[in-house]
Design brief:
The protein is of the alpha/beta class. It has 7 helices and 6 strands. It has one domain: LmbE-like (Rossmann fold). It has a 6-stranded mixed sheet, sandwiched between helices. α5 packs across α6. It is globular and about 55 Å long. The two termini are about 30 Å apart.
């Protein structure tokens, strides 16, 4: 799904001229989202000469290690994920920025517990959006990609990433919103759905046909 700040007839004047490369800003909630959500498309566009920056809104500090053979040792989860993010950026060919906010982890339970104080989704929207407005104005993307209003799935930080992305997309173009950078209008913003119901159903059906357990 695409949204645009411009009429279709006005998009062309925001596209690069004189051989300047197209620029795309991909906004994600956690390190690893850039690899599990759209990595093939990212690599394709990089191969076509598009400049891509990935923004990780949090450090994924409260994530879980699912590989029983992996040992943290004396490293924190964030240190591991930071190294993984650096390697992913090298493989994909993208530049990368941390927005710098703290992860909440997955709030499990019914009812769900309150979010950790001071985490990304707990802080005021304008506070957590301000650094992304600066990045948009600095990088000057022609296109921004992010999650839909449901976050792709209902993780509070995926939903917050949608809110922050929409705020930054709109306010980066607003001359009344003052930062150290000049206003910039990204021509379009796209949602991507990493978790399609049709795709999950198709995977489930194939597993049943093959006689194996469905995830």
């Amino acid at each position: 799904m695409a949204q645009t700040n411009l009429t279709e007839s006005g998009v062309e004047r925001y596209l690069p001229a004189n051989g300047e490369p197209l620029r795309l800003l991909a906004v994600h909630a956690h390190p690893d989202d850039e690899s599990s959500k759209g990595a093939a498309s990212t690599a394709k566009y990089i191969s076509e000469g598009v400049q891509i920056m990935v923004v990780s809104c949090t450090g994924g500090e409260r994530g879980d290690i699912l590989n029983p053979g992996f040992e943290l040792g004396d490293r924190s989860i964030f240190e591991v994920r930071k190294d993984e993010m650096k390697r992913a950026a090298q493989i994909l060919g993208v530049s990368h920025r941390w927005l710098g906010f703290e992860d909440s982890g997955w709030p499990d339970g019914d009812p769900k517990p309150p979010l950790p104080k001071g985490c990304f989704a707990d802080l005021p929207l304008e506070e957590v959006s301000a650094p992304l407005v600066e990045i948009v104005r600095e990088f000057k993307p022609h296109v921004i990609t992010t999650y839909d209003e449901n976050g792709g799935y209902p993780h509070p930080h995926h939903i917050r990433t949608h809110e922050v992305s929409m705020f930054a997309w709109e306010q980066a173009a607003n001359p009344e919103y003052k930062t150290s950078q000049e206003p910039w209008t990204a021509a379009k913003l796209y949602y991507h759905h990493g978790f399609s119901k049709l795709r999950v159903q198709a995977m489930h059906d194939v597993c049943l046909e093959l006689g194996i357990d469905s995830p």
